Amino acid sequence: MRENRLRTLWKDDRAALNGWLAIPSAFAAETMAHQGWDTLTIDLQHGVVDYQAMVSMLQAISTTPTVPVVRVPWLEPGIIMKTLDAGAYGVICPMVNTREDAQRFVAYSSYAPQGTRSFGPIRALLYGGADYPEHANRTIVRFAMIETAQALDNLDAILSVEGLDAIYIGPSDLSLALGCRPTFDDVDPPVVQAIDHILERARAHGLVAGIHNGTPEAALGRIAKGFRFVTVSSDARLMAAGAQQVVAKMRTGTTPVAGSGSY
Fold it and tell me: What is the spatial distance between Cα 198 and Cα 66, in angstroms, rounded to a whole number?
């Protein structure tokens, strides 16, 4: 079966640099994949990507060594299984709030006897190889998102679930849950404390901790703290930021012409 390079990075205690895909375009995904990201996550929860677009984006990512990850919309067996059948090598599941949630997530993403995943890896066989069924349970990476007050209350119970590989923090939702302003990087003190606590408990349980970031500076700081999966921005944000830079430079650098207005 094709190696999951995400697991290889973690085995060497190296952090994975993850890009985020919210634009439903195979070409955009292919362009991002050729920029050197370790992993790319297709967002089915908050992006505008549907299932068919996701499949074409996974195919585009496959033109590179970048590891394909998908954030599913919810803890629902159908979409988790279809995402894996399409060839995702990692699944991020939002709003995992209890030990039972985590157990169901692991079950939905694992073949029997470890789980209840239905057999039908139609594209996963093409991406992972003919021996995919024998090795999928040990190769797929499962991220549970910790982003609510309830999840914090149940943190150790969630982290102790066998088969869970990693947790992923959504700082904005976590901030809202703690009565703070939603943001990625410059979070309020209660959220800083919660993030540090989640990281510490994840490491104590032998799980990898991941987190969403708005800037490279924030991501580098969190890697130094011990995070081993860091997302920096997204395709949509990067496109907007690049366009804004060009437009701003042109507007401020253009010599005004009489009668042409303020431009």
Answer: 27
